Each structure stands twice: as structure tokens, then as C-alpha cells.
Amino acid sequence: MNIARREIRLFFAFGLITAAVLAWNAFDNNQQNSQHLSVSTQSDMDFFIIDAVFTSYDLAGNLSQTATAKKVEHFKQKQHSLLDNPIFRTFDHQQLLAKISSNTAIAEDRDGIITFSQSVNATGFKKGDVDAVLKTDVLEYNHTNNSISTDEDVEFTDFLGNIISATGLFSDLTLRTINLKTNVKGTFNAK
Predict the structure, then answer these.
(1) Which residue(s) pair with 88 in the sheet?
(2) Exposed, middle or buried: residue 126 (CB in 10 Å: 0-12, 13-18, 19+)?
(3) How far apart, in whole angstroms, are the C-alpha atoms of residue 51 and residue 164?
(4) Which residues neighbour 144 within 8 Å (Cβ) at sequence distance 6 or greater?
(5) Given this model, what pLDDT does residue 33 score?
(6) Which parts of the chain sit beneath pLDDT 50?
């Protein structure tokens, strides 16, 4: 089973938000008064963003990706960011190609791993209409080896209503392959 190109772009969008968070951290002037310093030291949080919105454009100036989160908190010593209600969208010629959302996500600074958790939905679009939906509780994106994986239950639903479910998944986004690990089941609608 192949993952569509638009879904690959979606995962790159998430990489963009991570890069923006890292850039923010790198260029932060770290000027804090002593009251803020003690609170920050106790929690290890070095910055946060409320109602975060990140936008990316292609070389022609067309919208290519957006990423939003109700809150982004970066933790310097733990070297990761926590995102509340992240939503990532990928576009091509102003057409929505893919969207991924979850209740929370953790973006690791060091190894490029982003873990979406709690009600993860990845949706692919074709000409503005929903083409396929992936639902799971946890989905890990590894930027280093360009893969997604989970050991949790997953469910794919296509635009015809066909459903494939499994426990566990590994997908190499470069090769555009998906390996469903165990308990693979399907319901196909004859139309």
C-alpha cells in the first residue's frame, strides 16, 4: 500500500514548525527578569507561544504549508517542544492536499522525532474533497529517516468508505510504502 505524495508533504510541514521553534530558540535574547527566571528555571520552559501560526511559501510565492497550535511550549533542558492542538496543512497551487491534527504533540530538538498523540487524524485531499483518512492515538514522525510509525491501532478510510484497520504501522515515506504490523482487517464496499 502506498502513501500519497501529499501525505509526505504533510509530514514536511510538521518539520517546518519544528524548525521555526528551534530558530526562535536560537535567536532568543534570553533577557528575563529575576521573577521570570525563577519560574522558568523551575519548569525548564524557556519560551512559549500562544495561538502559534507558521506559514511557508514555495519559490513562486504560493502558499505551501501552514502549521497552527493553540500553545507551543519549549523546554530547553529537556530539548523538546509541547504543542497543544496542532494542525498542519499542505497546499499545492492553493489547493489543500493534506491535513494532520491531534490533541497534543511533542517535537524533539535533537533527533527530529515528532510524536502526535490523542485523537490523531491525518487526512488526504484530492481536488478539495477528502480522499483518505488515517486515525490513531499515537503517530511518530521521524524526520531523520523520513518515516512514520505507531504500535497503536490504526484505521484507514478512503473516499469510497473502504476501511482497513490494523495494530501497528511503519511507513517509509521515501519509498512510499506502508507495513501494517498485526491484526490487519478490511471492509470493502462493492459499488
Answers:
(1) 67, 100
(2) middle
(3) 35
(4) 111, 112, 113
(5) 41
(6) 1-4, 6, 10-11, 13, 19, 22-23, 26, 28-42
Task: Report the predicted TM-score, pTM, of the whole model to 2 decimal places.
Answer: 0.69
**How remote is the C-alpha of 186 from its chain's centroid?**
26
> Cβ(6)–Cβ(69) under 8 Å?
no
Residue ranges of E strands in 40-128: 45-57, 63-75, 80-84, 87-92, 95-101, 104-108, 113-126
Burial of 150 (0-12, 13-18, 19+ CB in 10 A): buried
Cell reading at 38? 525563577
How would you classify the pairing of strands 147-158 and 129-142?
antiparallel
Report yes or no: 64 and 54 within 8 Å, Cβ to Cβ: no
CA dist 24 and 69 (Å) reads: 15
Positive or negative: CA dihedral 111, 100, 172, 184? positive
Using alpha carbons only, how large is the chain's radius of gyration in Å?
Answer: 18
**How much is the pLDDT for 181?**
92
- Residue pointed to by grid coordinates 522525532: 113
